[in-house]
Amino acid sequence: MSLADHIFIDMCNDILTNGTSTEGEKVRPHWPDGTPAYTIKKFGVVNRYDLSKEFPILTLRRTAIKSATDEMLWIWQRKSNNIHDLKSHVWDEWADADGSIGKAYGYQMGVKHQYKEGMMDQVDRVIYDLKNNPFSRRIMTNIYVHQDLHEMNLYPCAYSMTFNVTQKKGEDRLTLNAILNQRSQDVLAANNWNVVQYAVLVHMLAQ
């Protein structure tokens, strides 16, 4: 098994052992027949992956790495909020007749903001700081924009990234570290999908 497999198993055991059932609560998700889709939830789950040891993909079950990477590039590179720019169908149920998911995800990454150095969107700002201010403690993104939530077809799940560069004394090599914050996640369906796509992103930004 991979290290990611062990982390996944430990996380699932922790949720099943120490989590709380949502049965009886008012929940948004529903099964196709209309009944509430209750879950077992645990707040504040934290997993750590060392990308210098392995690429954190599961061997326990298949993760669609090409589709996961395509969705990440849809948000971070294409900065799109339209499913017609996406090869997979994971966002189809959230799109309107024109294919838009509203002012969510890629839309927010493409919004330009005024900085002292000029106008940049969040992706360009991250790249600029990694190149010019690598040891800054202010390299981050946030797409959970409250003023636009009413125009999002789904509130962002993976909503912020924080980047940090470290360098051990006496070494020339720099290490890029990153934290992904998520408000919620369907562990069985999306956990390794998100782990894989943001591991790819970290590798790309490091290069």
Explain how this protein is built.
This protein has 207 residues and is of the alpha+beta class. The protein has a domain at 63-206: Thymidylate Synthase, Chain A (2-Layer Sandwich). The protein has 5 helices and 7 strands; from the N terminus they run αββααββαβββα. The chain has helices spanning 3-18, 65-76, 106-110, 122-132, 187-206, and strands spanning 20-21, 40-41, 113-115, 118-120, 139-142, 158-166, 175-182. The chain has a 3-stranded antiparallel beta sheet, covered by helices on one side. The chain has a two-stranded antiparallel ribbon with strand order 1-2. It has a two-stranded antiparallel sheet with strand order 3-4. Helix 2 packs across helix 5. The longest helix has 20 residues, at 187-206. It is globular, with a radius of gyration of 18 Å. The model has no long low-confidence stretch (mean pLDDT 96).
How much is the radius of gyration in Å?
Answer: 18 Å
Q: Examine the coordinates and then state which fold CATH places here, giving the name of the CATH topology of the domain at 63-206.
A: Thymidylate Synthase, Chain A
Helix content: 25-40%
CATH architecture label name of the domain at 63-206: 2-Layer Sandwich
- Shape descriptor reads globular
Order of helices and strands: HEEHHEEHEEEH
Could you tell me the strand content as a percent range? Answer: 5-15%
**Whole-number average pLDDT?**
96
CATH class of the domain at 63-206: Alpha Beta
Oligomeric state: single chain
Question: Structural class of the secondary structure composition?
Answer: alpha+beta
Count of DSSP H/I helices: 5
Number of strands: 7
Low-confidence stretches: none
Q: Outline the biggest β-sheet.
A: 3 strands, antiparallel
Query: What is the topology, as strand order, of the major beta sheet?
Result: 5-6-7
